[in-house]
Amino acid sequence: MRIALAGFGFLGSAIQRELATANHDLTVIRRSVGESDSTNIRFVACDLSASKPFVVPEKFDAAIFCLAPPTRDESAYRATYVDAQRNFLACIAVRHYTYISSTAVYPTAAGAYREDDARATSPRTALLLEAETLALGANNTCVLRLAGLYSAERAIYGEAITQYSEDRLVHFIHRDDAARAVVHAIERELTGIYNVHDGNPQWRSDILRRITNEAVSLPRGAARSISGEKFFATGFAPRFDNYFAGVQV
How far, in Å, are 167, 199, 212 from residue 215 at the CA level? Predict the structure, then answer.
């Protein structure tokens, strides 16, 4: 398949590796030109938040948008998720589109949340949902709302217990499983919105206790549960089925 990929960072590079294994023809749009030993990948240098890239006018079989903002302020969110995505979609013709979103669109209050339960509870979540609406306006769109993205090298949780003020139920997906989820969505031409995590949320205190081998006492926060049943029902199964397996602790 001919595939266009916007973003080549922590997740985008892992997606590229998964696609290369399957021998797809990949065009990567990133801020700087990269190099590859593969003849099936080419790079197009462009800051999508500022301009539209030049791409050979052809219809791609699939396109993936997985840019991440450099900071967490509202202007960076709009530039990355809305402006850059709009420029990306304007320069390609595509049969199937996969947009990477976040489970941050759900309220932080206790409860069980499914795909229809997303709410704009802050300016940032409003921008995330605006970007999803933009994505869903394209042809055959699949929105993947990823939970906490990590790897053994970028484990999210360290040993500094004192930086956390409350216990929380947290959801995860290993970076390599997230990349596999994207390929899964493309190959099955999934459409609609899906939550993507490993199916085994962990209490923050349990993670810290296992990492530090110390007793951890934090006031219990909200038990917010996010359902991943819809995506699992498509046949996807993570290789790292819980956080501890992924960080090898």
Answer: 13, 26, 8
